Description:
Blueprint: E1 2-4, E2 8-9, E3 18-23, E4 26-29, E5 41-45, E6 68-77, E7 90-93, E8 99-101, E9 110-117, E10 126-137
Parallel strand pairs: 2-4
Antiparallel strand pairs: 1-6, 3-4, 3-5, 5-6, 6-10, 7-8, 7-9, 9-10
Amino acid sequence: MFQVPGFIADGAVLPGRVVLISGPFKVKQVATAADSTDRRIVGISATQRRRPQGFADSDKHAIDGEPVRVYGNGEVALAQAQASINPGDLLIAHNDGRVKPLPASPTAGEYVVVGKALHAAAADEYVRVYVNVQLVKY
């Protein structure tokens, strides 16, 4: 596990969300379709405690100065509109800071793979992932 401590949140950043570098020592939560393919994606915001499945976003607190996981095991939120995922699925950023599976037949372009699912999960759950951010071209 490798975490980078001390990033300052540039806007609201919820725990377990995909984040990108937005300035010196600043990260922001992926919030748009353009953000989800940005090469500045660095990892996921740390979760401070394990949350039960289906834990509502409205019950979470924004982070500021919390660690960002850039490599190793971590938890990230799965997008609400996505079908379930399986262990080993590659996960890419969704436009709300959550993750979704890489399409089975990706269209030509660039994808920022956030990591690989370590277990099965259904939509709107947290999934344990092996975080390893990399750019993939098709």
